[in-house]
Amino acid sequence: MTAQVLGPLSVEVNGASIVPTASKPRQILSLFALNPGRVIPVPTLMQELWGTRPPPSAPATLQTYILHLRRQLDAAIGGDGPGAAKEVLTTRHGGYLLQVPTESVDVHQYQNMVAEGHLAFEAGNDERAAQFFRQALALWSGPALVDVRHGPVLEIEVMRLEESRLNTVERRIDADLRLGRHSELVAELTELIARYPQHERLHSQAMVALYRAGRQASALEIFRKLRIRMIEGLGVEPSLKVQRLHQAMLALDPRLDVVVGPADRSTHDFDLV
Prior knowledge:
The protein is mostly helical. Helix content is 61%, strand content 7%. The chain is built from twelve helices and six strands. 32% of the residues are buried.
């Protein structure tokens, strides 16, 4: 079995899709795919499907959904009865468990690559870090579970995944900035700050990329627009960290100049990006 949740839901067994067309069974399968090898308690499944007020028929309806998933599983496995499917989608005390290796699910491949990227980044191996982060991000084919209705449980999972995705993008940009790829990053960062107009870290990264590309005026203009949006929208100034970056650019602080290589991280990062 292979499962993909970093985009449209896809679950295949022997090359055959077992993703149901009905909304609620798709939600159940999504929860199983996100948690391979872990018991999903019945109350969690019911909360996802019906919120805090499940109907009296909810337990029986949930069992029907599980039965349908097992039938699809069994058809894809090619068994003569429900036994094979029950070994994959098993019943446990108080819940159900999808018995598949975690590495068969794209989200767990993604998390492993991100972890390797962080280790390389902290060790100063920026090239290796950027490579791992790129490979992790390449697993995404759209917003997580974009074609699945999100109940209260899935909504939290999807928010967590999307936040992780953005954090990985930020860290990959950090590695690329350390490697002196500022000019290559300008277009990407321009798009990102348009998508996240009050995201201070992305704006800081865009300012640094532009400054190092010899576009000081454009870098300062990004700060000006960010400050206006934050004051008008939130009633607050940008953080002290972003303000220090702005002041450093006005002063042409030499610590902002790119230093390629791990020899001097303090100069390279300036404690700002």
